[in-house]
């Protein structure tokens, strides 16, 4: 639109300069071209001429134009019959006169098109915004519900696992360590059994006495410890701090499901993961050793789910006290 307007104004200015007619003469000229534009438009579109800027209003504009120093000016009547085609190339000004109405017609049509399209877009945008907003709100609500349900399921699953693990460990009680720290531990849990072994002078260090962690949880098929494992890991770290001369070996084990090589690797990674957590809690790495045994040394039958669960474990053995 801006380009067409610039071109049109330039041509009109050139017309005024060439003819020396001024604004009044230009107005008369534009009015004289209306018939050409109307004749060029198909009959079924002639009703649109009055809505196009520069054509429908020309008649009313020229009727009010006055020459300076005179009364009302009536422009001369122009013949509506097109001039005969010239035998030679037409004069440059005559050529401009012929296509100028077409340019005006095109300019008005383009303006009308953009006005109509703008109205349609405004309606479409309003409807589209409402639909999209509702869709986004619905998707966000569904996503939030899914996340909430997933978190709730994970929490419930972890709580159920811990409940199963602690069911046979006896009652929890407070045990005070030489460091003054009190642990809240189960009667038959690893913490109490390990402390009793360390403090009993009649229990020598050997290679056959192992103590199984009873509240460690890993992600399935991974060496990632679940947050619920932190309580027991902290208890073990406090025991090692209370008995600084004690050294331990960590053993990782799996059931016999899957490849033996894969199980061996997973058991090593899990033993290393537990060692790493104890180091983070302030235990020197030199006091800890870790080894993965895979599906070797099962403590129960792998023919049942319960037996396989018992075989998937981390155990410790005192190597120095």
TrEMBL record:
CDD domains linked to this entry: OmpA_C-like
Instruction: Identify one Gene Ontology CC term for this UniProt entry.
Output: cell outer membrane
Keyword annotations from UniProtKB, A to Z: Cell outer membrane, Membrane, Transmembrane, Transmembrane helix
Q: What is its main location?
A: membrane
Compartments annotated for it: namely: Cell outer membrane
Q: Where is the OmpA-like domain?
A: 205-321
Region named Disordered: 69-93, 294-321
The protein's matches in InterPro entries, at most eight in alphabetical order, are given as:
Bact_OuterMem_StrucFunc, OMP_bac, OmpA-like, OMPA-like_CS, OmpA-like_sf
Going by the entry's taxonomy, the superkingdom of the source organism is recorded as Bacteria
The protein's name in its UniProt record = OmpA family protein
């Amino acid at each position: 639109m801006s380009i067409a307007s610039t071109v049109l104004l330039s041509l009109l200015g050139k017309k005024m300069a060439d003819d020396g007619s001024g604004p009044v003469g230009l107005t008369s000229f534009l009015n004289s071209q209306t018939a050409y534009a109307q004749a060029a438009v198909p009959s079924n579109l002639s009703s649109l001429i009055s809505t196009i800027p520069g054509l429908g209003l020309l008649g009313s504009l020229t009727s009010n134009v006055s020459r300076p120093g005179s009364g009302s000016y009536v422009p001369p009547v122009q013949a509506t019959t097109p001039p005969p085609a010239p035998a030679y190339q037409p004069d440059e000004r005559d050529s401009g006169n012929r296509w100028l109405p077409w340019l005006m017609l095109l300019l008005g049509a383009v303006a009308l098109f953009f006005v109509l399209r703008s109205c349609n877009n405004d309606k479409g945008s309003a409807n589209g915004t409402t639909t999209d907003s509702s869709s986004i709100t619905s998707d966000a609500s569904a996503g939030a519900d899914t996340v909430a349900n997933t978190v709730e399921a994970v929490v419930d699953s972890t709580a159920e696992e811990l409940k199963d693990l602690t069911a046979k460990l006896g009652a929890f009680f407070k045990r005070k360590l030489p460091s003054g720290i009190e642990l809240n531990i189960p009667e038959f849990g690893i913490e109490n059994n390990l402390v009793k072994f360390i403090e009993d002078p009649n229990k020598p260090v050997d290679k056959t006495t192992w103590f199984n962690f009873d509240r460690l949880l890993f992600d399935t098929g991974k060496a990632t410890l679940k947050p619920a494992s932190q309580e027991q890991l902290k208890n073990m770290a406090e025991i090692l701090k209370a008995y600084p001369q004690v050294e331990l070996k960590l053993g990782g084990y799996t059931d016999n499901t899957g490849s033996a090589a894969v199980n061996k690797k997973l058991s090593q990674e899990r033993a290393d993961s537990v060692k790493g957590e104890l180091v983070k809690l302030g235990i020197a790495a030199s006091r800890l050793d870790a080894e993965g045994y895979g599906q070797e040394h099962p403590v129960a039958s792998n023919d049942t789910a319960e037996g396989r669960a018992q075989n998937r474990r981390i155990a410790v053995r005192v190597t120095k006290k």
